[in-house]
Amino acid sequence: MPVMQPIAAPLPFTVKTRLSVDRVSMVFERDGKRTEVLNNISLEVGDGEFVCLLGPSGCGKSTLLNAMAGFLTPTSGEIRVDGETVRKPDPRRIFVFQERGVFPWLTVEGNIGFGLSKLGRSEREQRIAHYVKMVGLEGFEKTYPQELSGGMKQRLEVARALAVNPDMLLLDEPFGALDSITRLVMRGELLRIWEAERKTVIFVTHDIDEAVQLADRVVVMSARPATIQQIVNIDIPHPRDISSARYLELRDGIFKQIGLAHKV
Amino acid sequence: MNALSQPAKWERFFWPVVATGLMLALWYYSVRWSGTKVFPSPREVEKGLAELLGHHVLWKDIIDSLRRVAVGFGLAVLVGIPLGLTLGWYPAANQVVNPTMQILRPISPIAWIPVAIIFFGVGDEAAIFLIFLGAFFPIVVACVNGVANVPSVYRRAGRNFGLTPPQLLARVLFPAALPQILVGLRIALGIAWLVVVAAEMIAVDSGLGYLVIDSRNSGKRYDLVVAAILLIGLIGLILDLAFRRLEKLRSVRWGFRHES
To answer: For the sheet containing A17-30, what is the strand order?
Structure first.
């Protein structure tokens, strides 16, 4: 069964490397206590690729994503984007938060236009209108986030991120707080947007199904201190039939890898 | 009817009116049964109020009091908000200033009256200085806490979009802290109204506080004293209600609980 790949596998197709994580370790020290969160992680992500970081809660996958965004600096090793070492946050890679990160004091338009203050007025308005439409929030332009549903808020945050035309989206369990039906819809939406815009996407989740439904490659991480256990290629074209034999085979492989018996 | 059900529309007016009526009755019978010659009955106060409203001097007193509050409170806002935002932004600076602030903060502005008179003499400036002192600390504290409590998600999102520190302060921290700052401003305005009355009893010779003390000193007119007190309460209520309307602005509504 040629499902499994060696750790830090080369990229599956011949695309240019967008992101490379090079032997990154992360140690937090607090009240004299050392916590090792990431242990020697190496990973390459190609341009336009959709990669899921999958692991148990608290394993450090969010920490890795924060380091990729430039919010945290690795204790050792380095992260490069387009060959350039990541040292601070940058609008070329936008982080989408686990909790709602939309600004409650701005309308839908205000949020989407937040990163566009350098543009001229007409271009900004065009850009806002384009992304309002893309995430299906037409008619809600003047609405405040407080009056939107959870799924709408999350779409708004994705629109705000896309509006600044980043090379990369870093999503931290973006659908974690949504109900299961909305979550399914949102996955479809995200894939549709990804296919239209072809951004590089790093998507953190602890949901195995979510990872297998979305990703080109799933990076399976161990419990803390996190290491990469395995990288699984999901070689099923979109739209994916989630009852197909191949889907189930890949999913069950990951279940076994994580050490879960696939029974409730 | 239980605590969760909405009271009917008539009930929302009826019961407060009944409560007010009972208070007036209690007042009336207390004055009557105790046989006091000093404290006025509601009827006498009503006449006193009519007498005051007929005088031009009352309107001048009201305007003087409001003017002092506007200037003192306005100065406290102009100095307090930038200072509070800065201290919230630089926790190290806040640690340096905080002990001094915590000592000055619980001192009643009334205690500063002798100092104010030494500095400014008897007059408007002294009263305004006292109002400023009373309003200043709640505003600074609200800004410091407001900025410190801004969720890190918002700060990180702001930095992610490439904002410089001054932009982050103006476009993320200030609007995110604004609901809490408004609460501080409202408390400060209430304090300013308390302080102006006290300051006017000592430091100046006009205004509603002066009216209270002058009505007593010139002929023990306690009907006018109580009438002036009621007016002070009424104007304070109007100021508070007017300020609360700011909480309904759409860009800050998210920070307040509203019955839907």
So the answer is: A33-46, A17-30, A76-81, A84-85
Q: Which residues contact B242 (CB under 8 A, 6 or more apart)?
A: none
Length of chain B: 260
B143, two tokens: 């800004």
d(CA A68, CA A71): 8
- Measure the CA angle with vertex B228, ends B223 and B229; round to 5°: 100
Question: Beta strand pairing status for A17-30 and A93-96?
Answer: unpaired
Of B137, B145, B131, residue with least CA distance to B181: B145
Select the residue from B155, B160, B251, B256 to test the A interface by mutation, using most A Cβ atoms within 10 A.
B160
Handedness of CA B215, B217, B221, B222 (dihedral sign): positive
Length of chain A: 264
Whole-number CA gyration radius for chain A: 19
pLDDT value for A7: 47
3-state secondary structure of A170: strand
Cβ separation of A105 and B254 shorter than 8 Å?
yes
Mean pLDDT over A217-245 rounds to 86
For residue B176, the chain A residues in CB contact (below 8 A) are 103, 105
**Helix residue spans in chain B (DSSP H):** 9-34, 42-54, 56-89, 91-104, 113-120, 124-148, 152-160, 165-168, 174-202, 208-217, 222-244
Q: Which two tokens stand for residue A19?
A: 């992101």
β partners of residue A38: A26, A226
pLDDT digits (tens, 9 = 90+) for A112-157: 999 998 888 999 999 999 989 888 898 999 999 988 988 889 889 9
Bridge partners for A35 per DSSP? A28
Longest dimension (CA), chain B: 75
Residue A173: how many CA atoms within 13 Å on its side-chain side? 19
8 A C-beta contact, residue A115 and residue A91: yes
pLDDT digits over B70-83, tens only?
999 999 999 999 99
Closest approach of chain B CAs to the CA of A209, in angstroms? 27
pLDDT for position A264: 56
Which residues of chain A neighbour B171 with C-beta distances below 8 Å? 114
